[in-house]
From TrEMBL, chains A, B:
Entry protein name: Transketolase
Catalytic activities: D-sedoheptulose 7-phosphate + D-glyceraldehyde 3-phosphate = aldehydo-D-ribose 5-phosphate + D-xylulose 5-phosphate
Subunit structure: Homodimer.
Pathway participation: Carbohydrate degradation; pentose phosphate pathway; Carbohydrate biosynthesis; Calvin cycle
Claim: Cytoplasm is one of the keywords in the record: no
UniProt superkingdom: Bacteria
Site (Important for catalytic activity): 35, 265
Top-level EC class as recorded in UniProt: transferase
UniProt keywords, alphabetically: Calcium, Magnesium, Metal-binding, Thiamine pyrophosphate, Transferase
Cofactor(s) the record lists: thiamine diphosphate; Mg(2+); Co(2+); Ca(2+)
Record's cofactor remark: Binds 1 thiamine pyrophosphate per subunit. During the reaction, the substrate forms a covalent intermediate with the cofactor. Binds 1 Mg(2+) ion per subunit. Can also utilize other divalent metal cations, such as Ca(2+), Mn(2+) and Co(2+).
A GO molecular-function annotation: transketolase activity
One Pfam family, short name: Transket_pyr
């Protein structure tokens, strides 16, 4: 590249873009790790985006109607941190950049949304940002329909690299965005032809333009170092009815000895080469130094949106107090006051009617009373709507003709669905929940982990939660998936036993502010186990005594979900033989672990033998069986230790020995 | 559809295809569950494929040079079972079809490869079959290059539905196949425009033809009920240099009242409608009855390949004894005799040199000695070749110009990579291994679970296995992933502590015949902990005493991988204070659990306090801490209980308290 030509053609642009490159080189050198090449390659595109198109106000990073900027290629985090510093975000003083990748810094190796304002989402696992962005764009559409264009009207811009586009989840996102005609979504593809292993060609020859077009996107190709072309393309991107992809031909690590090579992807820390690049840029400021005029030009960009924001605030004042209050409640993720009341009323009604139902059906019953009062929910399913029971009567389907719709047909795309839900939650104003089979947690895993890491209260409605699924067989029967979700930090895993516990689980899930929930629900019908109405949410304690021993307490059975009824049957068998048996329902291990020791001991006192029963793997159970004053040789587990099989559910429960008789037998063997 | 016109145009074809439809209707009705519509829609395509194109011999289902037929849309399992029954596969007598979806039947709800010959892979989780198929086709290319076209020369045919094509993994597979010009891969897309929720349009408007073409496929569209068009397209599909996709326009549940509706996807069990469909077909045989002439025509098809097979066997006789023996060894998945010897020699050398190395580097050192003697290995990486250390000096890159290559650049496609490895292993003749970061186990999860369920000895080289990854931060630092892999049935999880244990882990992984292995390897350098050479593979016992207490044994430290050295340091601290401390290295929990109780007690005797140390979540550890005669209040754990952070590795180990001092402190607190 002829840097001198680039520089002389657009000297003002060049100095602004070069500030990003210089800060990137300096921060990576200081950390002695990181990824230099991408920020250096995409600095021109990002500069034009921030200077002329992105609606933002650096002094109000949480302005609800800002455009969202998603760095899907999260390894290029210094691009984002440079922009946030240069434009004057409070969370990004120069010291943060000097502390790049150090403990406690806001400038983590990859952008982490929970560390600082200005970081819209956590990226790094490739393909996630572009898929979150689909959720951001859907959230904008839904909120615009709900609150009006004067209050909600913004774009979502994504920078994605070849890694993002190779990950399968990107196809799910691209196809969903195309189907939904998300015209305010703009993807800037960093087409630099380089991945870690070498040129893209080593692993891929896909014509990305044709691929995006095949899914209903409009596409343009530009020189990603030409500010006029970038500007024109971004202007074009805000027109029309389809999502837009701009293929930006760039040079990774522009101007460095490693330009256009895979070495350029990583940490360019060689001091001489670093200096040589700066000389080539015509940049003579010292490390982390930004010439005053350049900094000042960038800070002006940071203030570009202030007037727009004031105008928006004025418009917000113009709407009715009620609507404004609702907008604030929604955007702040607060549950409406009525929510608790409708759930309590529902529970009371269940105590009277004692409904028998599969918990997936119970979930639908709860949603039927919740959705009309909690208008923030957006439901969906990965093509299992009738099986997951996630669409309630009041919900219309969201599509290009009905942006009021609150139910999304995500298609057979569990991963894209979860990532889109993350985007909606991050955007704010939406409480996303969606369903698939529990076993397909596997497909959604990367995004489910990010819900937890990003502290987003997404709700995963995972039905068909055991061998109780029956004939579809082991490919569809989760056995290790409760353990997988429970092993994940900051995740609540609910496995309710009946309609009442399902209502309690939903109440907890819908009032979380920083934790995702997994609702593990049965396909098969279950009896009511909660006989008396309690206004209090017993599930909030994680576990509680469902039924105590009639005589001397000799055994404690601990169970979750569909196995609580089995434990109750086992109790009846044991009591008939004079063996006093307590049944503890444990719908949420994580919440039980959070209770104080006194409560935990009250529920699980030392002394009696303990048998846990759950149609899943034992992993995770030993704490409650062997620990918490349990004792080896005085505890056992009834559940799965292998994959399931294809047969009717009741046959499988017999075959794998998950029966009241087996539970009672284990108790007697321990006594 | 005018069935009468279809029937009269090709009566012989019609009766054969209708046999599939009738058996499907009967089996689903008998099971009262299943998926009728897809086999009914694709019966014509499958009939022509089996009758005129597929190279197979029903009497020799394991014939190595057969074409592979992959039913990616696995819910349509009755299509496959019908074909296998009709053509005369021994494992599929009529009784098996009558027992569809019942316990112990070979006719599980979804096809399960390990239940019967004739089922090439386990499908049902959508997108897996088409992605396995890429691995099958790669295996064929590599083996053809290795053993010659006279011995290996076959096609891979896939039937995929809209669900398969919506799953992101299909994009990874399609792009990889296009890049690799897998000309012997043929995908038959069941283009019926229906998914469970309704018409495809609800969730997708992708132009699939354009999408495949964008990735370098040749595509044709046909009427999937017209046998001539099907035949012509299949003839065409065997020409040219690119993979082929045939878009087959079909009617789901052809001829049934539910034709062309989402209801048609599921179980069509209504007796009257079933009968009406059979009448419309002109089929008057009773349930599960196949007219003798039709059965006989199908059986003739089942024998179509016999002559070809004999010719192939004759050709196999013509090659040298040595080459033939090697072919058989390879295809039977037997390790060469030399493998054990080279690994023992390598260990001996390590005992002398005491190499310090990251275990990812250790893994490369092992592979450098293994790959030249085990020619069945095919390595790869999801664009982290230099980080995963999976490419050895003798390995060339596999691509369209070099089918001899044994290293595959999978691109940033962890899921597609894992699924392709499953396909290679299922094909036979290949021992696939490949790498990514341990944290991205998440992306590969659905296929990793299937390695376990399908009993395939795939090796996952998962490097950067903890916070020891350092600055890339929590998005890249696994904490729950050891628990996730350990919770999965039939999976060996190895976390070796040094070069010697890494060699032992590889030996075990490469000699498995029905179990996948996960090698959890460090980024950071580790000291040698195995000081003396033992010819015996100590890792085979799962855990062993690495260093015993010097005086009275008061404490046992259990550790894995990078934390074994920390445990050894803690031991030194404790012994200095007179606290006799044993260190147990536990590179594989699953193998330790398989040892007899006497051995387990010898390694972990009752009495001493126990502290486990592993830079991951505690889940899975309580068995060894609290159980096995451990005791609460006498055991503790040093590890992670949250996500990690972005900082240098050594800072993180301090920050999260995973240090020798912390371990020693825990021991003293328990004593």
């Amino acid at each position: 590249m002829d840097l001198e030509a680039l520089r002389s053609a657009n000297p003002d642009h060049w100095s602004k873009a070069t500030a990003i490159r210089a800060l990137t080189l300096d921060a990576v050198a200081a950390a002695n790790s990181g990824h230099s090449g991408m920020p250096m390659g995409m600095a021109d595109v990002a500069t034009v985006l921030f200077e002329k198109h992105l609606k933002f106000d650096a002094s109000a990073p949480l302005w609800h109607d800002r455009d969202r900027f998603i760095l899907s290629a999260g390894h290029g985090s210094m691009l984002l941190y440079s922009l946030l510093h240069l434009t004057g975000y409070e969370d990004f003083p120069l010291d943060e950049l000097k502390n790049f990748r150090q403990l406690g810094a806001k400038t983590a190796g990859h952008p982490e949304n929970f560390l600082a304002n200005g970081i819209e989402t956590t990226t790094g696992p490739l393909g996630q940002g572009i898929s979150n962005a689909v959720g951001f764009a859907i959230a904008e559409e839904i909120l615009r329909a709900r609150f009006g264009k004067k209050i909600v009207d913004h774009h979502t811009y994504v920078i994605a690299g070849d890694g993002c586009l190779m990950e399968g989840v990107s196809q799910e996102a691209i196809a969903l965005a195309g189907r939904q005609q998300l015209s305010k979504l703009v993807v800037l593809w960093d087409n630099n032809n380089i991945t870690i292993d070498g040129t893209v060609d080593l692993a891929d020859r896909t014509d990305q333009i044709k691929r995006f077009e095949a899914s209903g996107w409009d596409v343009r190709e530009i020189d990603g170092h030409n500010p006029e072309e970038i500007d024109e393309a971004l202007t074009w991107a805000k027109t029309g009815k389809r999502p837009k992809m701009i293929a930006c031909k760039t040079h990774i690590a522009l101007g460095h000895a490693a330009q256009d090579t895979s070495k350029g992807h990583g940490a360019l820390t060689d001091a001489d080469q670093l200096q040589a690049a700066k000389i080539a840029y015509g940049w003579d400021a010292g490390p982390f130094e930004i010439p005053a005029d350049v900094k000042s030009a960038w800070e002006e960009i940071g203030r570009r949106g202030t007037e727009d924001r004031f105008a928006w605030e004025a418009r917000l004042e113009e709407i009715s107090d009620r609507k404004r209050a609702e907008f604030h409640r929604t955007m702040n993720g607060e549950a409406p006051k009525k929510l608790g009341a409708v759930i309590r009323a529902f529970k009371k009604q269940c105590a009277e009617s004692q409904p028998k139902a599969a918990t997936r059906k119970a979930s639908e019953m709860v949603l039927e009373v919740v959705n009309p009062v909690l208008l923030d929910t957006v439901g969906g399913s990965a093509d299992l709507t009738g099986s997951n029971n996630t669409k309630t009567g009041d919900m219309e389907v969201f599509d290009e003709t009905n942006r009021d719709g609150r139910f999304i047909h995500y298609g057979i795309r569990e991963h894209g669905m979860a990532a889109a839900m993350n985007g909606m939650a991050l955007h704010g104003g939406i409480r996303p929940y969606s369903g698939t089979f529990m076993c397909f947690t596997d497909y959604a895993r990367p995004a489910m982990r990010l819900s937890a890491l990003m502290q987003q209260p997404v709700v995963y409605v995972m039905t068909h939660d055991s061998i109780g699924l029956g004939e579809d067989g082991p490919t569809h029967q989760p056995v290790e998936h409760l353990a997988i979700s429970r092993a994940t930090p900051n995740t609540l895993v609910f496995r309710p036993a009946d309609v009442v516990e399902t209502a309690e689980a939903w109440e907890l899930a819908l009032t979380q502010t920083g934790t995702p929930s997994v609702l593990s629900l049965t396909r098969q019908g279950l009896p009511a186990v909660r006989k008396d109405h309690k206004a209090k949410n017993l599930t909030a304690q994680g576990a509680y005594v469902l039924a105590d021993a009639e005589g001397k307490r000799q055994a404690i059975l601990i169970a979750t979900g569909s196995e609580v009824a089995i434990a109750m049957e086992a109790k009846a068998l044991l009591e008939a033989e004079g063996i006093g048996t307590r049944v503890v329902s444990m719908p949420c291990m994580e919440l039980f672990a959070e209770q104080d020791e006194a409560y935990r001991k009250r529920v699980l006192p030392a002394g009696p033998v303990r048998v846990a029963v759950e149609a899943g793997m034992r992993m995770g159970w030993d704490r409650w069986l062997l620990g918490e004053r349990g004792r080896e040789k005085k505890a056992d587990f009834v559940g799965m230790s292998s994959f399931g099989a294809s047969a009717p559910a009741e046959v499988l429960y017999e075959h794998f020995g998950i029966t009241a008789k087996a539970v009672a037998g284990k108790v007697k063997a321990l006594l």
